[in-house]
């Protein structure tokens, strides 16, 4: 069945996929395409609506990205956002220029509630602005539907032609009623019914993977994290035993994690796939002995991981496809299209070079983390796997400051386990990313009547939506006290527990 589709035309904005995700949250399927998508191709896709993204350029410059004017005559609803709104104004005879006052951040906007786009939105509403150019004058056949004291056209529309534009960004969280505006656009303006669910994504992906793979062999490096687990289950549902998952236990996983992964994916689990667990703990500890420099530790773990994986892959022989659990934020972090590169993805990398295969399959590359979790639930993956916290590829290796030893791994695993258990008991698991780390500091303490000289454990908990910035979470003091008491009493080798208050920046989330 052909589904309703909304197309996001990307003019180089930072939030292009975020727009798509917000539209999908309204149960309407949405894809992002570059602004170079041909008009005929676009028509062929028969979208119910089109959204122009923001972008760093000035609509009036000759060399800025433009789109053929005919797009405005297709009778397909269009919503222009930021640069997209200026492009619409510029192309249709309005005037765009450098604003005398640029607006950045949360801004109160006064809207015209009679606009379909603003149905049920408060008359004065907080929106996210980020612009240096502005629409000084809307095209003649448009009406202005929102303003701020310094922005004469914060929104405009020509409802007869179904053309709408906002200077602000409805897709970002800081626009308090932004989701409502996008909902209004897809339902009230585009007339969508909302026929897209995560279940359809899962079914469609299973079908397309089956077609692509045929009777080929597929290899998956399974880490037990959310992304690779969801990718593996998706593939196993599609092609069963044609899939082999290799799970390398590097001895730097959280407590019991290796067994938990094996219970789900191994021969006693519910899935029909080939599962290989490699217990390589000793190998990693040997390589890490005496190494204290963080980058060197990361490199050693990454390289050893590849060696182990490579050895297993050689035993399997040639494979046709390699599955990767790449998700959308990995794609943007590594730099895609015209958006600025924020940071290069620092996962255990390099797998594709070491194995003979024809093609990579990345079934989750368009999804955000929470969408991946929803897909996982749809696939019936146990909740403790689906809601798992982000866990770095180098694992506890970068949560143990200084040299890694089996003994230190035991300490941090036990402390972290207690921390997580108490957070769960307090019912505050949604507080963000949280974990215990082992500092390299030993200090004098007293226990019973004796002197101790033991390690200090650091507890960390941060609130973050994008992992680029983070703030320390406020954990109730009694919970922290309970965790501290239990760690000191139950984990041998620790006599001090500290709580890290640092935000990112200047800190990072992990310690190394
Ligand atoms: P940082 O420490 O850079 O962490 O503030 C940001 C987020 O990324 C996770 N992280 C990693 N994830 N491989 C990964 O897959 C890595 O090497 C790695 N290092 C950090 C970290 O847990 C946090 O969520």
Put the structure in a nutshell.
This protein has about 500 residues and is of the alpha/beta class.
Overall body shape: globular
Structural class: alpha/beta
Number of helices: 15
**Ligand kinds:** xanthosine-5'-monophosphate
- Largest sheet, described in full? 9 strands, mixed
Number of strands: 18
Helix content: 25-40%
Radius of gyration: 26 Å
Gap from first CA to last CA:
49 Å
Give the rounded overall mean pLDDT.
92
Give the strand line-up of the largest sheet.
2-1-3-4-9-8-7-5-6
Unreliable stretches, pLDDT < 50, 5 or more residues? Answer: 334-350
Determine the strand fraction and express it as a percent band. 25-35%
Question: Keywords for this structure?
Answer:
binds xanthosine-5'-monophosphate, alpha/beta, globular
Tell me what you see in this structure.
32% of the residues lie in helices and 25% in strands. The chain is built from 15 helices and 18 strands. It has helices spanning 16-25, 39-44, 83-91, 178-189, 198-213, 226-239, 257-265, 281-288, 294-316, 328-333, 351-354, 369-378, 383-386, 406-425, 477-490; strands spanning 5-10, 29-34, 49-52, 78-81, 95-111, 124-137, 143-148, 151-158, 163-166, 218-222, 243-249, 274-279, 321-323, 359-361, 433-447, 450-463, 471-472, 494-499. Helix 8 runs antiparallel to helix 9. The longest helix has 23 residues, at 294-316. The model is unreliable at 334-350 (pLDDT under 50). The structure holds xanthosine-5'-monophosphate (XMP). Xanthosine-5'-monophosphate (XMP) is lined by residues 346-347, 390, 392-394, 433, 467, 504, 508-510. Residues 346-347, 390, 392-394, 433, 467, 504, 508-510 line the site of xanthosine-5'-monophosphate.
């Amino acid at each position: 069945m052909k589904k309703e589709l909304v197309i996001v035309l990307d003019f180089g904005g930072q939030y292009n996929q975020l727009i798509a995700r917000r539209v999908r949250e309204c149960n309407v399927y949405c894809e992002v395409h570059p602004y170079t998508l041909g008009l005929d191709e676009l028509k062929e896709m028969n979208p119910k609506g089109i959204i122009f993204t923001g972008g760093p350029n000035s609509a009036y410059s000759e060399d800025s990205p433009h789109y053929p004017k005919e797009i405005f005559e297709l009778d397909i609803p269009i919503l222009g956002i930021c640069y997209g709104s200026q492009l619409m104004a510029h192309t249709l005879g309005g005037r765009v220029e450098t604003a005398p006052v640029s607006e950045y951040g949360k801004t109160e906007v006064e809207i015209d509630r009679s606009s379909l786009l603003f149905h049920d939105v408060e008359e004065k509403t907080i929106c996210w602005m980020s612009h240096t150019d502005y629409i000084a004058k809307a095209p003649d056949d448009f009406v202005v539907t929102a303003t701020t004291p310094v922005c004469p056209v914060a929104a405009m529309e020509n409802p007869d032609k179904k053309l709408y534009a906002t200077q602000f960004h409805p897709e970002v969280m800081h626009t308090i009623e932004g989701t409502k505006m996008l909902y209004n656009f897809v339902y009230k303006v585009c007339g969508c019914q909302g026929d897209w669910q995560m279940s359809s994504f899962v079914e469609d992906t299973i079908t397309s993977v089956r077609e692509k793979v045929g009777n080929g062999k597929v290899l998956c490096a399974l880490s037990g994290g959310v992304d690779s687990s969801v990718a593996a289950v998706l593939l196993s549902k599609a092609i069963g035993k044609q899939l082999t998952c290799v799970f390398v236990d590097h001895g730097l996983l959280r407590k019991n994690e290796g067994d938990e992964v094996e219970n789900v994916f191994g021969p006693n689990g519910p899935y029909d796939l080939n599962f290989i667990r490699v217990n390589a703990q000793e190998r990693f500890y040997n390589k890490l002995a005496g190494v204290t420099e963080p980058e060197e530790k990361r490199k050693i773990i990454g390289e050893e991981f590849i060696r182990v994986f490579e050895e297993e892959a050689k035993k399997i022989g040639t494979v046709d496809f390699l599955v990767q659990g790449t998700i959308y934020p990995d794609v943007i972090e590594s730099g895609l299209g015209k958006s600025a590169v924020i940071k290069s993805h620092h996962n255990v990398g390099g797998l594709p070079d070491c194995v003979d295969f024809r093609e990579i399959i990345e079934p989750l590359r368009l999804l955000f983390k929470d969408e991946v979790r929803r897909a996982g639930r749809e696939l019936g993956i146990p909740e403790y796997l689906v809601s798992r916290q982000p866990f770095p590829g180098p694992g506890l290796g970068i949560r143990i400051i200084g040299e890694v030893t089996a003994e230190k791994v035991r300490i941090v695993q036990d402390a972290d386990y207690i921390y997580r258990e108490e957070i769960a008991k307090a019912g505050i698991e949604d507080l963000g990313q949280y974990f215990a780390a082992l500092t390299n500091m030993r200090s004098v303490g007293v226990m019973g009547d004796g002197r101790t000289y033991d390690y200090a454990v650091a507890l960390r908990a941060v609130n973050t939506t994008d992992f680029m910035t983070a703030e320390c979470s406020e954990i109730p003091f009694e919970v922290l006290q309970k965790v501290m008491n239990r760690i000191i009493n139950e984990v041998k080798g620790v006599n001090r527990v500290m709580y890290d208050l640092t935000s990112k920046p200047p800190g990072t989330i992990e310690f190394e």
